[in-house]
Amino acid sequence: MAASDTRPVHLIGVPIDLGAGRRGVDMGPSALRIAGLCDRLIHLGHDVTDTGDVAVRIPESADAGSERARFRDEIAGTNRALADRVATSLEAGALPIVLGGDHSLSIGSIAGAASWAAREGDDLGLLWFDAHADMNTPETTISGNIHGMGLAASLGYGDPVLTELGGSTPKVKPEKVALIGARDVDPGEREMVHESGIRVFTMREIDEKGIVRVLEEALAIVRQGTLGFHVSWDMDFVDPNYAPGVGTPVIGGVNYREGHLALELVSDGGGMVSMDCVETNPILDDRNRTGTLGVELILSVLGKSIL
Ligand SMILES: [Mn+2]
Q: Rounded to the nearest 5°, which phi and psi values hold at 56?
């Protein structure tokens, strides 16, 4: 079977749950590996290296610090290391796929991809799939969990330790960002979304237009005036009927086929620079169903087709 993207694939695990309220997503990288990610990508025709995990402290041995941004310093440290790993893979001409882990790791993966793009003299687009907006800051947050702050931080809002991680801020320009699948947005996040000017395709818009038209519009945004885009895929984009093992399940997500179709459409036109697959929580899962779905979805974005 032809592989659409011919770059070598670098898998990078980030077993972090410091950014989440509920424990268990630190086992996400294992769930994806045990579901056969590496072998199945090789079978699809890709050259794959599992580069292992980025070191992460566990909450039992770390200091939570401020309740408005819990474990900020530990999360920042892990993300600095992740940003280096992502940038190194891109410099080597590889495609980094980051296995999470809670969504706070997007701060590092996007920092790494954006720094590489800047060295190439161009902007990075950002395509974010999520039930949530992840547009909180330490000022707006209800929980203090940094996994709800990744998109805001990448746009330059929030704690400077997070926004300035890896150098310049913002990492991405709002007019080059699309968020797809939102259905659970905090009041403070709603204001941040409007203030930032990013394009959000809510579940209502997916219901009305269909996933194909939404992806066409979103891909036009992240491809316009960029050298390509980072895909940040939160497994909770998919409905809990199909992805029960996620950090923060929210009813009313896309179905199994819509999830695949979204990533098949991303694959068709090319342009994906790097990717995160985050928030798989084996503790809430049913015999690794969600880990298996995550692997299948990564295969779809890397060129697997039905025929
Ligand atoms: Mn998220």
A: -135, 135
SS3 170: coil
Q: Residue written as tokens 């068709």?
A: 268
User: Domains plus CATH for the chain?
Assistant: 9-301 (3.40.800.10)
Distance (angstroms) between ligand 1 centre and the Cα of 62 equals 23
CA of 28 to the centre of ligand 1 (A): 14
294 Cα to the center of ligand 1, angstroms:
15
CA 147, CA 62: separation in Å to the nearest integer?
Answer: 17
Kindly list the catalytic residues: 103, 130, 132, 134, 147, 234, 236, 279
Segment 263-287, tens digit of pLDDT = 999 999 999 999 999 999 999 999 9
* pLDDT at 5 (0 to 100): 84
Q: How far apart are CA 307 and CA 298, in angstroms?
A: 17
The pair of three-digit structure tokens given for residue 201, joined into one six-digit string? 């395709």
